[in-house]
Amino acid sequence: MRTLTKRVFGSRASATDRNAAPDLAREVERELGQTGEVGRLEGDEPIARDPVRPGAPKAKAPNRHTRQHESAIKHVTGRAEYIDDLPAPDDALHAIVGLSPVAHGRLERLDLEAVRRFPGVVDVITAADIPGHRDIGPVFPGDPMFAEATVSYVGQPLFAVAATSYQVARRAAQAAVIEIDPLPPRLDPVAAAEASEFVRPTHTQSRGDWSAALANAPHTLEATQFVGGQEHFYLEGQACLVVPSEDEGVTVYTSNQHPSETQKLVAEVLSIPFHAVTVENRRMGGGFGGKETQAAPWACMAALISRRTGREVKLRLPRADDTRATGKRHPFSNRYRLGFDDEGILLGADITVIGDCGHSPDLSEAVVDRAMFHADNAYSLGDARVVGHRARTHTASNTAFRGFGGPQGMMIIERAMDDIARHLGLDPLSVRKRNLYRSVQDGKPRNVTHYGQEVDQHPLMREILERLERSSDYWARREEITAFNRRSPVIKRGLALTPVKFGISFTAQHLNQAGALLHVYTDGSVMINHGGTEMGQGLHTKVCQVVARELGLDLVTVRISATRTDKVPNTSPTAASSGADLNGMAARDAASQIRERLYDFAAEHYQLDRGGMRLEGGELVTGVGNVTRRMPWGELIQAAYLGRVSLSATGFYSTPLIHYDRDTGQGRPFYYFAFGASVSEVRVDTLSGEYRVERVDILHDVGDSLNPAIDLGQVEGGFIQGMGWLTSEELKWNDDGRLMTDGPATYKIPTFGDLPPVFNVELLEGHPNSQASIYRSKAVGEPPFMLSMSVWSALRDALASLVDYRISPDLDTPATPERVLMAAEALKHAGDENASAQQRDVHP
Amino acid sequence: MIEFFLNGERQRVTVAPDTSVLELLRGPLGQRGTKEGCASGDCGACTVAIAEAETGDQPLEYRTANACITPAHQLQGCHLVTVEGLAHGNDLHPAQASMVACHGSQCGFCTPGFVMSLFTLHEDRRAHPGPPLDAERLESALGGNLCRCTGYRPIRDAALDMSRQPDHRPAWSEDPALDTAVHGLGRIPATDDLEPDTFLAVPTDLAALTRAMSAHPEARLVAGATDLWLETTQRLAPLNALIDLRQVKELRTIEETPDGWWIGAALTYRELEPLFARHYPALAHLLTRLGSAQIRHRGTLGGNIANASPIGDMPPALLALDAKLRLASESGIRELPLDAFFLEYKRTALQPGECIADVFLPRPEMLGSLSTRPDTLGSLSPRPEDAPGEATPTSPRVELRAWKLSKRREDDISTLLGVFRWQLENVPSGEIRLVNIRVAFGGMAAVPLRVPTVERILEGSAPDIDTFEAAKDALRNALTPMNDARGSAAYRLTAACNLLERWRLVVEGGEGSEGDPSDTTEEVMLHAYAH
Fold first, then answer.
1. Is residue B393 in a domain?
2. Is residue B259 domain-shared with residue B240, that is, in the same domain?
3. Is the ipTM of this complex over 0.85?
4. Nearest-Cα residue of chain A relative to residue B89
5. Would you say residue B192 lies in a domain?
6. Has A463 been annotated as catalytic?
7. What SMART domains does this protein map onto (chain A) (predicted)?
8. Residues B404 and B493 in one domain
9. Segment A316-349, tens digit of pLDDT
């Protein structure tokens, strides 16, 4: 086994010194003194892994994998341009959207005369001004561009105003007279589900006789859980700039994960052909799913104003408007009924997940599906039924967010693992390990999910868990923490190890396709363009690496340009972690076409043996040993051009093997699974509810990494973002359905000091993807997000110590200090009562 | 018109009073490297470095600020440094080079702000070499910058890596005349070119200030603007008539008396750090939890009080210390106990034309109860810095704890804040009594307040369970806190009572949280929050 190791402060903390508060500086200085490096990667694969050395000269070899982000220098010098930085002419208009102040009601009057008369206002639009489609629902109808007869959430667009400046437009929007006859808002998704208020039909997956399995199980438990939503809090808010073009068209510059869909919607709103709309995105200041469908409305509005006025229009949502108007991660209300044996091994399961979808379908069909697909996480449920409801409530339409329902689905089974352990007096890790997917158990196959997909790499998952169990010193720490908790009345420590198994592919099969466009210019420089968008995840860097690798070039020879719908058409959103898998393959396809053409040309033109040709080190190499012939890339390209060889190619890729039948709830929706596991240790003040995450160990599977530095960044960033979701990031609506936490003053994402002082993160190495993905890598965008579940489980572990681990505490998320304190108080009061009061053992 | 330097270049621009530094940069000056993330001073994406010319020939010191809530007119006589001004040609500043080398940027939108925080950290360490960076210093420097992508580990590495990068300096730093040129601009902007319906006054003494307030009752007072500016960026209120307090010399001094200090209301939190660190470690610790570095560099003590928010951090602490105010107006100066200042939600005892001039902070030793006998309780003897070289304590130490609860440890506003002051007294029977009690809370009512009923129960009582249980009952009866985005009323009340319990445990434990950190069984709170 080869490992990619990142040295982190205190990572080698021994069993004896781990109680000491880590002295960051000293650790760091020591690390520096010993190795002269900080935070670098060490690998032992000679060509494929390149150590990052801060301050070291740029790597000389072309195809080393660890490369800095293609825009890194532009980022740090302020030269990287985002939408609001794009130059616009002096007569450009600035648009602002007028939002509903009411969650549910009949729009009785929308008087915009004062807005129109406001000095500096140039145009005002409402639904009546839309020449084409008024409903811009991305998959299913239900999202009016502007509300008409009824309003469905606080923050729903009612009109847009364009003025000579941003401030004027904002002030003008306030002059609107809006009269809404309020109706009672529906804000409780469980009540909505009970009343069959759904945005999409309920879906069920089941396998085996789950009902009999539950009835016959030696133990059964049931519990419910609320899993909170999450605001994306991309640092760059929703923004677009629309430039009217000749004829009837527009060019739309937008911070957007799905340019093709925005192209479609803009064209449909304007009632013009798709070819009249070009959508471009160079980079986003963060997306996380929040700009998959919900970047389009602003582009539609700005495009309409731009066509009406013939002027450039910039539309940038102020942060509070952005937070109110756009959907979030779905809050979920989950329930399980589980049957298990004396060992804690699941025999049967009946799991229900209710996604709070907000007012419209948006992507909720697929989001709740993914929650259902992940209600098993890494565990064989036995005979199981999983039911998914899509509740309609009067909030913004909840949408894609890193993990796409998967995290919310996994939470219920991770809760169950802890609950089973407490019920049987076992350690939660033992229960988790016993339930991992495996080949067979008691003569029954345990390697097939409740939706019928075989988990082919399940031994890898077990290996990850067991390696992490050892490297994190789990059992010695468990013992020490239990002893600590016994003697510490106020401060309680908790420890938990949780796995992740995450399915990779869009569950909407048709989205699993990608295109690329590659040009080689006559100086040999290469331009690659593909359908994916760059939101910080390093996709463009990886795609450039793929092209450089295929053509044997230095990375500086390959440049990437903005994503544009007139270069690569009909693209899928950059989502579902699939950006590199799909677009990397498409780029590889394009590059390999060029390569083959060059081989053909060289074989014929120079009378060379085509068999042994290769492109490496910026040269075409033929032959072996002493008879090797080398031709510089630039010369080859010039000759090929003169030889009238096409130096441009389109690439295409579609993922093989995947299928899913929604009628039967069975299939193989995922091309493969990505795995990982994490161990978190927390320290909780049970008087205040305050806590600190003190140490985290992660081992994560990315197959053969395309770029270890970028992948580590995704693993760490995903973990911290997930930790925020489960701890401090709290969405609170008041009784009128108004979001109270509408900005960073009240909505608290993790900050610098929340970084665990000890943070050991490793990428699993030596385990290429079992499927033929791009260079046998695995997707990395979403899976690490769910590594954060160990933080939540560790908090429950710490709380359970208050009652000698006899009760598995309720702890809904986000587990704010308030929730932790209230859970501690509940446990203290329950201390002397029946230990199983929290979970009813429903078996007679 | 204001004159200042931007990345070494002299600028002369006309700005309306409600223009922010960010709007000036991204608009008229065309410098769009500085980003807007929230326009409320909470995310740090717009972080810039500002060096303010002070008196004398001090070298310029660069401090971070949130450009989105810094009034542009306050740039007069300053050197403003932005992300565009760091690299020297193709040579990146260490703050930039280390971010590249350590993969510190992903989407890159927060990066200019982080780079500026790293830049000021690096320059500060260049000017004032000290011990290696520790976690506290890093958190203090970087806690006001949000990153949604990286999870901060690479940024932590970058901060530690700066000292290893080639020490390229910005081009402007090679200009030996720059500091002098900045000093030469003066701090008072010309206002003769303002639009007719706008007003800006930058008085330099108290008399001019009170005159301006009297003549322009419509004008808003502005100091750090860290709260006021949200009225324009978030609520679109016009701020076209301003009186700036930051150049009023009386408001910018600390007057030391035998009893304590009169602290000028326009002094920033950062400027108070040394005083607090020396005399009130609890307040110094509280400052580390107040806003972010960007906020502490601009926000003022007077602003925190005059703002009268029920969740301001300083008022409960000052209430527990019997602070008083000097209020100034054209008719003169009056003193008022802080206790009498907060009337109801966001309403204070300030009269029209009146402002807070100074805040009196008593010396710790002046807070001692006269009845306290000085002979026992060695465990509570003064800390060395309070009584250097004294072998025998003269009185039991006055203890103060300020405990802030918030969703997030850094850069968050209090959900609730409890401040507790006490001394222990030996009575002739040999028992120990709590004396000299103050109990103050923020976030538990419409105003920051003391809770006299709780104080009365504790005063003179034994620090035992019965006493504190009675105190909790009294607290529950005295306060009905609010439900809001930061916490429910039930949580606030439960947590407030638990803070009394924590207090009891601290008293019971003697040294309490100040004890040996390795003796974990003695812990009554987390180290990250303890002081």
1. yes
2. no
3. yes
4. A77
5. no
6. no
7. Ald_Xan_dh_C
8. yes
9. 999 999 999 999 999 999 999 999 999 999 999 9
